[in-house]
UniProtKB/TrEMBL annotation, chain A:
Every NADH:ubiquinone oxidoreductase-like 20kDa subunit domain range: 34-143
Entry-linked PANTHER family: NADH DEHYDROGENASE, NADH DEHYDROGENASE [UBIQUINONE] IRON-SULFUR PROTEIN 7, MITOCHONDRIAL
Entry's Gene Ontology BP terms: aerobic respiration; electron transport coupled proton transport
Keyword set includes Electron transport: no
Signal peptide residues on this chain, from the entry's feature table: none
Record protein name field: NADH:ubiquinone oxidoreductase-like 20kDa subunit domain-containing protein
One Pfam family from the record: Oxidored_q6
Family: Belongs to the complex I 20 kDa subunit family.
CC per GO annotation: respiratory chain complex I
UniProtKB/TrEMBL annotation, chain B:
Residue stretches spanning the membrane: none
Stated name of the protein: NADH dehydrogenase
Gene3D superfamilies listed in its UniProt record: NADH:ubiquinone oxidoreductase, 30kDa subunit
Origin: domain of life: Archaea
Protein species of origin: Acidiplasma cupricumulans
Length: 154, 151
């Protein structure tokens, strides 16, 4: 971004689009298990993620562009997660919240849990914890915003 | 008249009685007439036999009662005729423990897909044989041992 002497700012269209997208991430309510409680706390008044542009959780995948997969993804739920992901419009982003979603967590030896939701859908940001605190999820969202704006290496 | 094999109290003070499975319906009918409701059905795998434990609750007396039934051929009479609540509980026990409830009209799997092989909470269930679930566009689920055909 350049600032000229005339008080006019010039930027590229991509930069402007990235700035707009990163500051209006509308998340989808994809609460599958106990991490959803922390996700609700992140959205609620105390740690309001509206401050970062994630206005309100949408109940329809067609109105949202960020999927926070919060909670254990079972093998039976995985095809449904995949289908809901496919229903979201581009550009779409995914945050994997909690160790169950990252690699299976305490259910790693179980028979019914998908060991990592990244086998099902592509994941942008991983937020570890069991469950992650709302502050950690807020940090994950800020990291995703930086990633959209191209400010991080990964 | 039903025959009580064992009558004991557990750590929490709950009365737990053990019955023969042919006396189960008769005894449960009497407990129902005394005001007991079915709270839950649990299964335990003791390797050589299976145990089915029914938890009953009396709202008037605020009293719990455990009823234990041993089965060596994994078959137990169904209680759906007495309590409607037994329907899904018995389906869950069939799904995860493989206990067959005789007289249940709709004994299908309730948590796992219909094509799943084996009953996962049994001691002899092989966890190394991982099963993968997929879904077609109609919403029908398929189970496969091949990693490429599901998640």
């Amino acid at each position: 971004m350049k600032t000229g002497d005339l008080g006019v700012k010039t930027t590229t269209l991509e930069k402007a689009l990235e700035w707009g997208r990163s500051n209006s991430l509308w998340p989808l309510t994809m609460g599958l298990a106990c991490c959803a409680i922390e996700m609700m706390a992140t959205q609620a008044a105390d740690l309001d993620i509206s401050r970062f542009g994630s206005e309100i959780f949408r109940n329809s995948p067609r109105q949202s562009d960020l999927m926070i997969v919060a909670g254990t993804t079972t093998k039976r739920m995985a095809p449904r997660v995949r289908r809901i992901y496919e229903e979201m419009p581009y550009p779409k982003y995914v945050i994997a919240m909690g160790v169950c979603v990252i690699q299976g967590g305490p259910y790693v030896d179980g028979y019914s849990v998908v060991l990592g939701v990244d086998k099902v859908i592509p994941v942008d940001v991983y937020v570890p914890g069991c469950p992650p605190s709302p502050q950690a999820l807020t940090y994950g969202i800020i990291t995703l915003q930086k990633k959209i704006r191209g400010e991080t290496d990964r | 008249m039903y025959n009580i094999i064992a009558d004991e109290k557990d750590k929490g003070g709950m009365r737990v009685i053990t019955l023969d499975k042919k006396d189960l319906i008769e005894a449960m009918t009497e407990f129902k007439s005394q005001g007991y409701y079915l709270s839950s059905i649990t299964g335990v795998d003791m390797k050589d036999h299976l145990e089915v434990i029914y938890h009953l609750h009396n709202f008037d007396k605020n009293e719990y009662l455990g009823v234990k039934v041993l089965t060596y051929d994994s078959k137990v009479p169904s209680l759906v005729g007495l309590w409607k609540a037994a329907d899904w509980d018995e389906r869950e026990q069939y799904d995860l423990m493989g206990i067959i409830f005789e007289g249940h009209e709709n004994l299908r799997r309730i948590l796992l897909p219909d094509e799943w092989v084996g009953h996962p909470l049994r001691k002899d269930y092989d966890l190394k044989k991982v099963q993968y679930v997929s879904m077609d566009s109609e919403g029908n689920e398929h189970v496969s041992f091949d990693e490429r055909e599901g998640w």
